[in-house]
Design goal:
- It is a single chain.
- The chain has helices at about 15-25, 35-40, 45-60, 65-75, 80-95, 100-105, 115-130, 135-170.
- The protein has two domains: about 10-60; about 65-170, Up-down Bundle (AhpD-like).
- Helix 1 (about 15-25) packs parallel to helix 3 and helix 7 packs across helix 8.
- The protein starts with 14 loop residues before the first helix and ends in a 14-residue tail after the last helix.
- The protein has about 180 residues and is mainly α.
- It is built from eight helices and no strands.
Length: about 180
């Protein structure tokens, strides 16, 4: 397989592309890669998308453990090897149990010791599978995270899907040049 949409050449960016690339690299990501790099083909999309992504990763009511849980569930649902590979270590470093990550990897429902993880997992799975969430699941999420958290979790899931669709369309290989890291 070959990458269908190449990354822009960082040595020949337009002024507008360079300004966005500099903004992304100066932020909490510290670098530009993956969907952000592809979005540079549309500098305004890259600028707006990276700001939304920065908020959704580091500015919501969710700690890193719960954000990474939603990201991993979304990556697994979409079979996005690139995002999965890039977020496993972040998830574990933010306090997500390795056995929970392993269960998600193998499409098994994890055994949850923490109710907030169970609620985020169920909310994310329902939204991805059904394109909607039951009243019961929304109520459980509202009880823990208020309406703000429900809106932010929904946006986080959708944002990562947008990035994953970009990666899939471009057919981006993993950093090591392989294409898969998840079992079928």
């Amino acid at each position: 397989m070959q990458q269908r949409i190449p990354y822009p050449d960082l040595g020949t960016l337009t002024e507008e592309q360079q300004a966005v690339a500099d903004e992304i690299a100066a932020g909490p990501r510290g670098q530009i890669r993956g969907p952000m790099l592809l979005w540079l083909h549309s500098p305004e999309l890259a600028a707006r998308g990276q700001r939304v992504g920065e908020f959704l990763r580091w500015g919501t009511v969710f700690d890193g453990r719960l954000s990474e849980l939603a990201i991993l569930v979304t990556a697994r649902h979409c079979n996005c090897h690139y995002v999965w590979r890039n977020h496993i270590e972040l998830a574990v470093n933010n306090g997500l149990a390795a056995d929970l990550v392993e269960a998600i990897k193998h499409r098994q429902t994890p055994i949850f010791e923490k109710n907030d993880e169970r609620v985020v997992y169920e909310f994310t799975c329902e939204l991805l599978s059904n394109h909607n969430v039951t009243d019961q699941t929304v109520a459980a999420a509202e009880e823990l995270f208020d309406n703000r958290g429900v809106v932010e979790l929904t946006a986080l899931i959708g944002y990562y899907q947008m990035g994953m669709y970009t990666l899939a369309t471009a057919r981006v290989p993993l950093v090591d040049g392989t294409w898969t890291c998840l079992p079928d």
